[in-house]
Specification:
Number of domains: 1
CATH class: Alpha Beta
Helix content: 25-40%
Number of helices: 6
Oligomer: single chain
Order of helices and strands: EHEHEHEHEHEH
Shape: globular
Number of strands: 6
Low-confidence stretches: none
CATH topology: Rossmann fold
Strand order of the largest sheet: 3-2-1-4-5-6
Largest sheet: 6 strands, parallel
CATH architecture: 3-Layer(aba) Sandwich
Strand content: 15-25%
CATH superfamily: HAD superfamily/HAD-like
Structural class: alpha/beta
Distance between the termini: 17 Å
Length: 179
């Protein structure tokens, strides 16, 4: 059975901003996140990303600029001789009524189909209630990190009952790989 971890991007891998991450220069990795992904890869996990990127539809940046951000991530991971297995993004705004924008499960279902994995055996690491709801929609294991918007999400109380909480991606990976 393939082991996979699905990650949200902004707030989990890189710093987040209420004003959107619009350029490769604004795309700044959270300390320890690149190393954590490298450790997952070296431990035999497939690692994919599922990220809402409505800044594209809003005209804040282009698909090409998004690719440049992902190229920056790839370059950082290449220093550890690893790479992301797939990046799935939704470029739509909430009013577009698409099937891919989290909390709708489209991206996670696409990942499951493409990689032939069982979402019920797959953690989805995120920092927002939207990420938690997306994981729950497909019976994936929701994991909350306190980086990005995670501290605010953690304060929701009952809405996140049963969701394991970690300081950051590195702490989650440390615990996962010790098991």
């Amino acid at each position: 059975m393939k082991k996979m971890i699905i990650l949200d991007r902004d707030g989990v891998i890189n710093e987040d901003s209420d004003n959107y991450i619009k350029t490769p220069e604004e795309w700044i990795p959270i300390p320890g996140s690149i190393e954590a992904i490298a450790r997952l890869k070296k431990a035999g996990y497939l690692v994919t990303i599922a990220t809402n990127q409505s800044g594209i539809a809003r005209g804040f940046y282009s698909e090409q600029t998004l690719q440049q951000m992902h190229d920056k991530l790839a370059k950082l991971l290449a220093e550890f001789d690893v790479s992301i297995d797939g990046i799935f993004h939704c470029p739509h705004v909430p009013d577009d009524a698409c099937k891919c924008r989290k909390p709708k499960p489209g991206m996670l279902l696409d990942i499951a189909r493409q990689f032939e994995i069982k979402l019920s055996q797959t953690p989805f690491v995120g920092d927002t209630i939207t990420d938690i709801l997306t994981a729950r929609a497909v019976n994936a294991q929701a994991i909350l990190v306190l980086t990005g918007k995670g501290s605010k999400t953690h304060q929701l109380g009952r809405e996140i009952t049963g969701v394991p909480v970690f300081k950051n991606l590195a702490e989650y990976v440390n615990q996962l790989l010790q098991e």
